[in-house]
Amino acid sequence: MSGAATVVPSPSGSRLLVVRNKENDSPAVLEIWGSALLEKEIHIPQSVHGSIYTDGWFEGISWNHDESMIAYVAEEPPRAKPVFDYLGFKKEGLAEKDCNSWKGQGDWEEDWGETYSKKRKPSLFVVGINSGEVRAVKGIPRSLSVGQVVWAPPSKGSDSLLVFVGWSAENGPQNSPRKLGIKYCYNRPCALYAIVDPFQQPSTNKLSYEGEMDDHATALNLTHGFSSAFFPRFSPDGKHLVFLSAKSAVESGAHAATESLHRIEWSADRKLHQSVNIVDVVPVVMCPEDGCFPGLYQSNILSNPWLSDGCTMIVSSVWCSTQVILSVNIFSCKVSRISPNESNYSWDVLALDGDDILAVYSSPVDPPQIKYGYHTRQVDQLITWNWLDVSSPTLKYSDKVRSLLSFHQFSLLKIPVSDLSEELPKGAHKPFEAIFIQHSNCTSEETCKESKVDGVCTPLVLILHGGPHSVSLTSYSKSLAFLSTLGYNLLLVNYRGSLGFGEEALQSLPGRIGCQDVGDVLAALDYVIDKGLASASKVAVLGGSHGGFLTTHLVGQAPDRFVVAAARNPVCNLSLMVGTTDIPDWCYTEACGKEGKNFFSEAPSVEQLSLFYEKSPISHILKVKVPIIFLLGAQDLRVPMSNGLQYARALREKGADVKVLVFPDDVHGIDRPQSDFESFLNIGVWFKKHLN
Fold first, then answer.
1. Enclosing H/E stretch for 103
2. How many alpha carbons lie under 13 Å from residue 600 in its C-beta half-sphere?
3. What is the pLDDT of residue 683?
4. What pLDDT does residue 450 have?
5. Helix or strand (DSSP H, E) at 251
């Protein structure tokens, strides 16, 4: 379907909702499809609401149980703007063409930052499918932006309820009315709320409240006192509400951290109150034992994550440098890995139907493949999961691609920690990991040996992820596969602070950026050189965002160890970034540690600016020798292009070999297909020029 923002099937699967967000001031369109038949088309003008959120975070599109209504999240209608002509304020009722006038834009409103430019107030709406009527949900405090809405289970004689996530706009310093960027940032406080469906008639069976409420707010906070709650999911029997929490991120200030899973008993008679008992299902794992469950690291939960027993959820989560599929029993709290234990491939669950699972798996050298999973119960009642290949006409790869990839292999490396500081917790002393992708055009060990020239290995490219609290996974990346097929080995380093290794290792990095992470990358480089997997004289480095921060740090702190570098939207100067980014709190937390969020201010002191500069790559710029290519997104609100441009101009000032490419329509990720292609094509050409 062309022009569709998203397609959402109904609970029975017999109907589809197709959302079309039109450009400019055109109405949004909701299409209800039956079996190959368009049953209804609903046009919603801008006066009702703006574009519908289909982003995966604020997004919440939910059919009710009898498929008569749909709840969804959309931008609130634009406020009326004052209009003036040459005589002053223009009276209402006059057409625009009646006089020459200019429009005052009114008070400026904060938006939600990176990728949410001009998205200021996600609001909740319900559409009646038969009538086509759209109603805004009233009673939600204006300070809340909403998302991830689901319908509560129906109950005879009770109002229909909606459960949603609410984020407060007042999350700036000292709770000032500042919307800090939310993309990739799980440290924004949020809570679960319940509210009555706007189509319900007044009823005597109201929600039961305890504590103080806004005068005009009727939404009930279900997780009062809990700093983070999102991705609400009801159990199949409707008796329990399960949700994820990033309270570790909220409390520490880190933009992402180890998550936890919780359960609320859902009252069928709607006698809910703000002292709901919240049960921990999966707590935060601080320091996992070797080979054991490292904690939850999820970016989403399926809308229907339940096996047929009604109490086991199937989720995808990061486990060190891989992504795995887990089963979680919400009553026994048992967590089991159901994707193959012996596999270093990454797995992701796509859909469930009863006890049948559709999943996808891949590796850095194997394109994605669909798998079908089912379980068998043994005599001792142990459950064994079996996985079968599924032929997919949409995942076909050319013979040329398969031929190129057939000469590649990958392995996971355990890198010992070099600085065993007593200040760091036990979890930060454990080895971290790196993914080594080896390129070879050889068909035998003998020809591989002959391919070395004077004993020099294939050139190596260090790949550094951003965040810093993110992770490089053993999943397929076409961009990295492209670099590998150019004739390079790749080393993807998951330095301490990455997701998937427990909370202690993750929290060891804030306050030590530019030092601990740089040391870990150099330790990984030394490891592969000592093992004979790389030559010290042929090393390039590539990173984006915080990976770009590390890239520019490395070529400054260790200028003789690299031949060439590439940086995508890099953080080069924290003292400049803090005043221009949508997440200034990130600068305080990562530069100063956990205490940074306590003195976060929009007006940093001279001492703080000095610290930011000292922690930045630009403080080492005079030592940089290598040629660097910069790839910058002009619409980046996270690390505005002024950061990379300042650094590149300073390098040119001292005569360095610098190339700058700007993508005028791209944001932080530079992930529009054409831009992604051009970006890595130019990186490949740059590396070919300087590395070979």
1. strand 101-103
2. 27
3. 98
4. 39
5. helix 247-252
| Helices and strands per DSSP (H, E), number in the chain | 12, 34
* pLDDT of the residue at 271: 59
Contact between residue 647 and residue 641 where contact means Cβ atoms under 8 Å apart: no
**pLDDT for the residue numbered 269:** 63
Distance CA 671, CA 689 (A): 24
Tally of residues, the chain:
692
pLDDT given at position 228: 96
pLDDT for the residue 91: 55
Rounded CA gap, 492 and 550, in Å? 13
d(CA 636, CA 582): 10
Q: Per-residue pLDDT tens for 80-95? A: 766 666 666 665 554 5
Nearest-angstrom CA–CA distance, 141 and 168 = 9
User: How many Cβ atoms are within 10 Å of 90's Cβ, its own excluded?
Assistant: 18
pTM for the full predicted model: 0.92
- For residue 296, the model assigns a pLDDT of 98
Query: Taking the C-alpha atoms of 193, 199, 200 and 202 in order, what is their torsion angle to the nearest 10 degrees?
Result: 100
Q: Which residues does the chain have with pLDDT short of 50?
A: 94, 98, 201, 203-215, 442-451, 453-454
Run of H or E residues at 279: strand 278-282
Q: Which residues are catalytic?
A: 545, 636, 668
Please report, as a single letter, which amino acid is at residue 349.
V
Between the alpha carbon of residue 1 and those of residues 31, 101, 134, the distances in Å are 12, 41, 24
Distances (CA, A) of 604 to 297, 596, 608, 609, 678: 32, 11, 6, 6, 38
b/e sequence 291-320, b meaning 16+ C-beta within 10 Å: eebbbbbbbebbbebbbeeebbbbbbbbbb
**d(Cα 565, Cα 554) in Å, to the nearest integer?**
10
If phi > 0 it is left, if psi is from -120 to 50 it is alpha, else beta; for residue 87 that is: alpha
